[in-house]
Amino acid sequence: MSDDLKKAAAEAALALVQPGMRLGLGTGSTAKLFVDGLGAKVAAGLDVLCVATSEATQAQALGLGIPMSTLDETPELDLTIDGADEIDGALRLIKGGGAALLREKIVAAASQRMIVIADDGKQVATLGRFPLPIEVVPFGLEATRRATAAAIAAAGASGDLVLRKRPDGSMLLTDGGHFILDAHLGSIANPERLAALLNQVPGVVESGLFIGLATAAFVAGPAGVQVYGDVAAKRG
């Protein structure tokens, strides 16, 4: 059922794509379904130019014949479509389960609109049930981990910080060559404060808190696809 819901959300977002658009392509299982659908539209003659949020999405899109660019060549995008690990009622997100949070945030920030696509299992009243990914540089890891823990405590949260590894036990590296600390917080009472405090920690590259970036969301459930926010609204 979850895959069917993800596909329904992806198809709803595909309806927003217009010829000539500059699109940001997200990363993850739901975003992958959107890229598959976009590839079919491109094969049928749709003219778009896209920027990927990860090497995996880049490879997928190129394999489907989707015209690709970079933010250096195309620094302003019309629309980014991406998934989320959690989404609350204020369209605040936790992202980074797929280890692409830095590039996802850069691409989203370069876009006039960011539309989230998700199944209703990603909806939460309070962020934090999903472990918060925090991307950090390898240098000084233990010092950064301690400063990150202090920032989390100052924001009124607590929980274990776990260095993410691959299934084979090797260290996970992001596309940018960084590590990820997953913060198992359970609940984040003040996402804005936590995001601001984490951004002040030397060694933290970016957190998976996406605040003020999503302009709307398509959330698919058994009753259909619900729309949150304004799909036509542009940010800033």
From TrEMBL:
<comment type="similarity">
    <text>Belongs to the ribose 5-phosphate isomerase family.</text>
</comment>
<keyword id="KW-0413">Isomerase</keyword>
<dbReference type="InterPro" id="IPR020672">
    <property type="entry name" value="Ribose5P_isomerase_typA_subgr"/>
</dbReference>
<comment type="subunit">
    <text>Homodimer.</text>
</comment>
<feature type="binding site">
    <location>
        <position position="122"/>
    </location>
    <ligand>
        <name>substrate</name>
    </ligand>
</feature>
<dbReference type="InterPro" id="IPR004788">
    <property type="entry name" value="Ribose5P_isomerase_type_A"/>
</dbReference>
<feature type="binding site">
    <location>
        <begin position="95"/>
        <end position="98"/>
    </location>
    <ligand>
        <name>substrate</name>
    </ligand>
</feature>
<feature type="binding site">
    <location>
        <begin position="27"/>
        <end position="30"/>
    </location>
    <ligand>
        <name>substrate</name>
    </ligand>
</feature>
<feature type="binding site">
    <location>
        <begin position="82"/>
        <end position="85"/>
    </location>
    <ligand>
        <name>substrate</name>
    </ligand>
</feature>
<feature type="active site" description="Proton acceptor">
    <location>
        <position position="104"/>
    </location>
</feature>
<dbReference type="GO" id="GO:0004751">
    <property type="term" value="F:ribose-5-phosphate isomerase activity"/>
</dbReference>
<dbReference type="InterPro" id="IPR050262">
    <property type="entry name" value="Ribose-5P_isomerase"/>
</dbReference>
<dbReference type="InterPro" id="IPR037171">
    <property type="entry name" value="NagB/RpiA_transferase-like"/>
</dbReference>
<comment type="pathway">
    <text>Carbohydrate degradation; pentose phosphate pathway; D-ribose 5-phosphate from D-ribulose 5-phosphate (non-oxidative stage): step 1/1.</text>
</comment>
<dbReference type="Pfam" id="PF06026">
    <property type="entry name" value="Rib_5-P_isom_A"/>
</dbReference>
<comment type="function">
    <text>Catalyzes the reversible conversion of ribose-5-phosphate to ribulose 5-phosphate.</text>
</comment>
<protein>
    <recommendedName>
        <fullName>Ribose-5-phosphate isomerase A</fullName>
        <ecNumber>5.3.1.6</ecNumber>
    </recommendedName>
</protein>
